[in-house]
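Here we describe the complex-level prediction in full. Unlike the single-chain runs in Section 2.1, the three entities below were treated as one system.
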Amino acid sequence: MNRITEKILTIVPEAVVGTNGEEIVAIPKESFRKVAEALRYDTEEPMDFLRDIVGMDWGEEGLGTLYYLECTSTYNRITLKTVDHDRENAFLPSVCNLWKTAEIKEREVYDFFGIKFLNNPDMRRIFLREDWKGYPLRKDYDMNSNPLNMENEINADDTDEYFLNPDGKIEGRKNIVFGKEDFVVNIGPQHPSTHGVLRMRTSVEGEDIRRIDPILGYIHRGIEKLSESLTYPQTLAMTDRLDYLSAHQNRHALCMCIEKAAGIEISERAQYIRTIMDELQRIDSHLLFYSCLAMDMGALTPFFYGFREREMILDIMEETTGGRLIQNYNMIGGVQADIHPTFVQKTKEFIIHLRKVIKDYHDIFTGSVIARNRLIGVGVLSREDAISLGTTGGTGRASGWSNDVRKHHPYAMYGKVDFKEITYTEGDSFARYMVRMDEIMESCRIIEQLIDNIPEGEYRVKTKPVIKLPEGIFTSSVETSRGEFDVMIESRGDKSPYRLHYRSTGLPLVHAMDTICRGGKIADLIAIGGTLDFVIPDIDR
Amino acid sequence: MDYYNLQPILLGIDRYMNSIMPGWLVTVLEGLAVGIFIMLMYIILAIILIYMERKVCAAFQCRIGPNRVGGKGGLLQVPADVIKMLTKEVITLKNSDKFLYGLAPFLVIMASILTFSCLPWNKGGEVLHMNIGIFFVLAASSIGVLGILLAGWSSNSKYSLIGAIRSGAMIISYELSIGISVLTMVVISGTMDIQGIVESQAGAWNIFRGHIPAIAAFIIYLIAGNAEANRAPFDLAEAEQELTAGYHTEYSGIHFGFFYLAEYLNLFITSGIATTLFLGGWMPLHIAGLDGFNAVMDYIPGFIWFIGKTFFIVFLLMWIRWSFPRLRIDQVLALEWKYLMPTSLVILIVMTICKVYGLIF
Amino acid sequence: MEVKKRTSIMSMKYEEFKNNDYLEEMVRQLNMDGAGIILGTLDELINWGRSNSLWSLTFGTSCCAIEFMALGAARYDMARFGFEVTRNSPRQADMIMVLGTITYRMAPVLKRLYDQMAEPKYVVAVGGCTISGGPFIKSYHVVNGIDKIIPVDVYIPGCPPRPEAFYYGMMQLQRKVKVQKFLGGINRKERKPEETEYVENTSAENKSENGRHE
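The structure predicted for the assembly as a whole is:
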């Protein structure tokens, strides 16, 4: 039992420390706020990064949530749990004034489970239509209760807020998002620069942005719910379709989580292959980032440059995995197939080639006066905001928040290779851009250290076709191309998960849009969106 | 040097027609013939320019570009696009100002054709000839922005409106720089007559005669002209990645085709005027003292000189378009009001001083 | 005198298209009545123009959109075949490539985009998700096939389809455009009940054919 757990027990003696799977501290909902505040403002080890809020339906026990917290200085983690037994009218205290990211994560929990958060100013549906009936991730949800509705959706201009009035009753009030005087422009869902089907209702004054209200869910496919009826090997198929530009890494996370829970040891060869593939995927994703950012800003030629090199990576990956975009390569117990005989040589050649052409990239785009003017000093995100909003990955690192999972919670081969965590302190669009460009070179370094030393051995441990995990809650986290990606599995000992949750890397980024873009121009909105580098199917899941 | 002067032939035709039919009929027929000629040239040039743009941008982007439609090299790609656009439905919007909505594309194309007809193709080969020709070009080209503004306003779409307002703010600003750099050249040539400006460059092109101030004015003209033609990095009004298609978001079929044509022709006109003012129009390259060389140059017809120089500038502008990211609206306006306009004023003064003290060649 | 319709494409031999049954059926129906030489020739010219200048609407919802971007990029370069630009405004687009899953929330938007497009307009359903719901067929929020919402001209199966498969589907669309009637007949009028049946048959056929090829 570590120091934080002891501290919680001194504040709330009735807290229960569960050790089923991973350590989780269950706190009664009445004293939850007190504990959260104490942890957030702890003098020695403030838990200032809220990794995720996971809604849960524990059936008889009631509805509840799991809070994954992390300290940004010591990187210690802790998981809190709180439950409301009243399934019909579930209320939990909001923590959105402690961690800003809770604003949108609590909306997600409300949308899926119907748990209302007291004092969260924005309790609207987030992924589902506003006229949706029921809460789909509850166990008692009728899958046929919402047929396809072809009527155009009308979005309310105000939000619901629930609060506890002094005499202990729960009341609701409305908060206005857009007033009558606002000139609201709809950016999306069909828009070339929203990187998918994000919709941003943007209130503008001339060219200046006053407020952005992201509307999500246009590609919400219910992957988490679907996974509950699939066996563990089957659930792997969905991960590639979350963030398709981090297909390997997502799948890596889920495989790691299942392997950890089932106690499967992975051969070193598989670990090497996974790490190399992860890094190739990262280069692939960052090249696409470069291409799309340039295109968003109106420079079309760099787009083609980025794609030219990206095709080379796809060739390398295709030879080994058989897929271009979605590879389905990682399996429980290793990887699906051994690497192609020419893989090592081609990868090495590619890295040599990339180091040469990256100079062209910088010449045509980074060095361009217009690009620099458009990016430097635009869309500044402070370190505090970055942590509070939970913007992991390159976005956080550009603000000086060292948050690389590969460095601080090493997995696979990352503990054994030497690489630098790229951080900038400016926090502007240019820093976000440069973080990614530098990470390409850093990924090259990682691959170079590994590629010649791939040990002989099995690429895959034989596993049974039906895998049953022991009871408990298991998590794993990886650094995908755009941030921290966590997998949370609650197992009840069956062949399929009781609940499977993915931490969306993009959701905090989209949430941060409003903070970053305010006061900027419409053109900045597009450039900032480009540098934040989100992938919508990963947000909506 | 008058081997290719078109004036005698044209005057001959005119005289012959006058001798066989009444005067008013001659005027009508000639007007019709010239009108059809301009329209045809307009369409043909637009097709050539669009094809050129596609091939040029493909070359910059390590692609091949259109190469299947109509045999090798995709020569018939653009005609296919034109046929498609001609037969595509023209959508009328329910909540738009129908009259203005319909008028806007015609205003844009009209402004473009008016300016187009002022270009000096050859000696004696201009369509509209007046002694304040360059002034007329400036005036006519500014009708175009009216079309863009109306298109954005009448579409009843927010993207269109933002695009139109951007375009209005930008084009009106950049017209100042264009005007001043044109004035600089008028100073050096001493006339506003387009043919006169070309004739005055018989000894050497203006860009050589005016040396440093002329080169500076040329650069400013290119920047401002690029903005005037609404092309990247100044394509804020269209801004595909921001406003989907800007002021013409709601236009379909041939109405959209008009905007599309006008965009390319404006590029040609901008380059054509630049050629006229700075690179001697149809005037062959003459180097003082090298009479033999000059005589050889004179054997190349004027219209080839003009088209060659113009396409060279078109290529320069395409190069710029495919290399740079787009500017932001405040940067665009700051560039004009803080840098280009003051600079071009200084250049105008310097040029006047040079002219007065005979410091030009 | 009559003009007979053909369905050839410059860059691809007729024999290389493996599933031509429904196209041939369309050609047969079209040729049944025949057309005058002037109208017929004009019609061919127009169809030639249209089929070689299919500008796509950028409508990417998910994974397939990235492959579509790869299709436009240097290696696959779809501009070669007349798919020169993608238009961002539905008014100016000729076809809508539905790239990725369509969810319940997106469905009305897709329908609206389709309605906003100017005639003639074509729909290509790309990827397993748009054809049937794909891996998400059992989900509570995924439309099981966009043919429930808008009429589909060509289906391209795959998850996501390879760029080569994209080409095959897009060229199949080009051939389909070539056998349409513009003059001397109405291009795409409201279908009579018996016609609707026929169309449904062919589209189902096409779908299963494509499925087999995969």
